[in-house]
Specification:
Layout: E1 3-4, H1 6-18, E2 28-33, E3 56-58, E4 67-69, E5 74-75, E6 84-92, E7 100-112, E8 119-120, E9 126-128
Antiparallel strand pairs: 1-7, 2-3, 2-6, 4-9, 5-8, 6-7
Length: 130
Amino acid sequence: MSAASDYLENALLDHTLRNTAYAQPAVLYIGLFTASTGLEENTPSAEIGGGSYVRKTATFAVASSGSSATSATITFDTATANWGTVTHVAVLDAATAGNVLFWGAVTTSKTIETGDTFQISSGNLTISLA
């Protein structure tokens, strides 16, 4: 995953080039999506909803060579209803609403039905600026 949202691109450019403060989020969250609609523009419209779905917190390792990967396994709650097919994930700055920071397609789409869980193993979600 290496696409930054327009929101993050603008915030980092202003921070670096215009000395405008950018407050980094205290906690990062992972969201699951059934399409990429609106992720780049920070207006996502295809996030999973209902069925016990909630965004999960994420931690990342120290960056090296322009990349950083998750430093712990992220396990979503067991679905109590069908969630649809997960095609994209995003790193966000809030548990609900908030801003998309990074987003991208999953390597293999996964259909989540009642009783299923979705998991991202430690080190398997990488953010890259290189």
